[in-house]
């Protein structure tokens, strides 16, 4: 499973958003009510579990969550996938 697919799965799991239609250009922050401060914390916890990372390693800003592509890029350098899809 590639990183984009894993991030979409994390979004679905943490925020219960249908992420199947999302593309790298899809806006996130401000486009979904679930992307509030609590939702972002839930998503970060999902990233920590899925990628075995410390979310403190991520450069966090509004731009990080602006689009799916920005989020994938932010995770690209710090993640090591540990979950495998069946």
UniProtKB/TrEMBL annotation:
Coiled coil location: none
InterPro entries recorded: ACP-like_sf (IPR036736), PP-bd_ACP (IPR009081)
Pfam families in the cross-refs: PP-binding
Superkingdom, natural source: Bacteria
Domain Carrier stretches: 1-79
Organism whose genome encodes this protein: Thalassotalea marina
PROSITE patterns given in the database record: CARRIER
Protein name: Carrier domain-containing protein
């Amino acid at each position: 499973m590639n990183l984009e697919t894993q991030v979409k799965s994390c979004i679905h799991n943490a925020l219960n958003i249908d992420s199947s239609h999302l593309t790298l250009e899809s806006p996130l922050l401000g486009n979904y009510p679930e992307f509030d401060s609590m939702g972002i914390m839930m998503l970060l916890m999902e990233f920590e579990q899925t990628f075995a990372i410390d979310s403190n390693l991520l450069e966090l800003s509004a731009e990080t969550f602006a689009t799916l592509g920005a989020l994938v890029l932010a995770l690209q350098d710090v993640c090591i996938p540990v979950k495998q899809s069946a």
